Amino acid sequence: MIKREPGYGPSPVRGTSGEGPISGQRAAVLERLELHREPVRINDLATELGLHANTVRQHLEALAERGVAVRERAPSQGRGRPAWVFSAVPGASEPDPRVRDYSGLAIALSRHIVRTSDNPSEDALEAGRTWGRELAENTFGERQVKERDARGAEPRRKTLQLLDGLGFAPDADTQATTAALRRCPLLDAATRYPEVVCRVHLGIVRGALEVLGGDPDPTELIPFAEPGACRLNLVAASGPAEA
């Protein structure tokens, strides 16, 4: 039985009522910004996050355009133009209401599968696999490869790109062999019915890898595996990890 321990597992997807989810590094930048009581400089925030200042600047500018952050000039401290500082808009970033509504639908569907299926876990996995194939084909075109390249990292990277687009905010190693999934677009449903929802998510990964030329067989999703994330393993423990 999969159980979520307090403090373990991903956070819900962030968003605003007028736009789609905030995912990936941008959500992490916003969350760090929200910890500051006073406006913060780009370089200071970049140091805290361990990111390049230009990367943080791009994320902050995008957050300001969405209306969840405010950009203003710092007080003048001598010659030269004062630096830009940023602050979070209180309450502007909440769980996306569309994600909330889809989560309600996912809970109802998961409950139905559990009640009617002889093997809910396998049925959910296959449903996710079909979805993953369609996502990969729609995003990257029809089947691009005819033979698996089980040692290549590119299919894994593209699969993680798909997950990022869905709002999972994957934080992967350099070889894309494993990733912490920092967010879950269906967290409420996954918490109640992990044997269905989490298996659908694993199926998405395997279906995408099938289309993109990776090896889906060793993939493993460990729900609520660590503080702040689920863990997705894309190769076997002793498997290849080439760039």
Q: Would you kindly provide a brief summary of this structure?
A:
The chain is 46% helix and 18% strand.
What do these coordinates show?
It is a single chain. The protein has 243 residues and is of the alpha+beta class. Helices cover 46% and strands 18% of the residues. The protein has 2 domains: 18-93, Winged helix-like DNA-binding domain superfamily/Winged helix DNA-binding domain (Arc Repressor Mutant, subunit A, Orthogonal Bundle), CATH 1.10.10.10; 97-233, Muramoyl-pentapeptide Carboxypeptidase, domain 2, CATH 3.30.1380. The chain contains 8 helices and 12 strands. α2 crosses α3 (53-66). It is elongated and about 70 Å long. It starts with 10 loop residues before the first strand and ends in a 10-residue tail after the last strand.
Number of helices: 8
Strand content bin:
15-25%
Please identify the top-level CATH class of the largest domain.
Alpha Beta
Determine the mean pLDDT: 83
> Nearest-angstrom radius of gyration?
20 Å
CATH architecture of the largest domain: 2-Layer Sandwich
Strand order in the sheet with the most strands: 8-9-12-11
